[in-house]
Write a structure and sequence with these properties.
Shape: globular
Strand content: under 5%
Structural class: mainly alpha
Largest sheet: 2 strands, antiparallel
Radius of gyration: 18 Å
Low-confidence stretches: none
Mean pLDDT: 89
Number of helices: 8
Distance between the termini: 32 Å
Order of helices and strands: HHHHHHHEEH
Length: 216
């Protein structure tokens, strides 16, 4: 019989991810939200910053797993595989409406221009950020799935989650050089700052867990 505790855990992960993503978006666009608490929490006039989602999901998932007495590492491992695929699929909408602005792009066959007035994209030739991210997250999903099949049933758990943080953080830090987002720290965009933090945390955790696995 299926463990019913999975459902409240999944709800906590999704809710935490949305909350973290919303906070990241508000901070990244602070001049638009400063002083308007209702606008901050109502999702009015804006969306989410996906690089804040892993932090929110991790905190909420950790608390939920402990409260529900679920194995934290295992639950995180199986969750991030689906999350990576969902992030890839979710970018289809961004490809259609051009929501995320890209850096100028010339001489490449895949450069895009958004000429329809109903879209949010740029009329000049730019890098297709939505497509880049969709393909990147699809690759992350494939890598995590292969890695999970290799390590499942072999403790310690949590290595797939650590690999997700490493891949996501490193990839988005590089990808952001092709995006036109606000610079927040030392010439870096918010996604790059968070990405570097995720990558460092993921690498540290992956090395530590891998060493524990070899010592068994």
């Amino acid at each position: 019989m299926q463990d019913q505790r999975v459902y409240p855990f999944a709800f906590a992960v999704v809710a935490g991810g949305l909350a973290g993503a919303r906070v990241a978006h508000v901070l990244d666009n602070w001049p638009m939200y400063a002083g308007d608490v209702v606008k901050m929490i109502s999702f009015a006039g804006g969306g989410i910053g996906t690089m804040g989602a892993p932090l929110g999901s991790t905190v909420a998932g950790f608390l939920a797993a402990h409260r529900l007495r679920l194995p934290v590492g295992f639950m995180f491992d199986i969750s991030v595989i689906g999350i990576a695929l969902g992030e890839s699929i979710g970018r289809i909408g961004d490809i259609i409406n051009g929501e995320h602005h890209g850096a100028p792009c010339e001489g490449l066959a895949w450069c895009v221009r958004y000429t329809h007035p109903a879209t949010l994209g740029q009329a000049t030739s730019v890098h297709p950020i939505g497509l880049y991210d969709a393909l990147f997250m699809l690759a992350v999903f494939a890598v995590l799935l292969v890695y999970w099949r290799r390590v499942r049933g072999r403790p310690p758990e949590g290595r797939v989650w650590a690999a997700y943080l490493l891949l996501l953080g490193a990839g988005r830090s590089i990808e952001s050089f092709f995006r036109l987002d606000p610079v927040v720290l030392m010439g870096l965009q918010q996604a790059q700052v968070l990405g570097l933090a995720y990558a460092a945390a993921g690498l540290t955790l992956l090395v530590a867990l891998s060493r524990r696995a070899t010592e068994r």
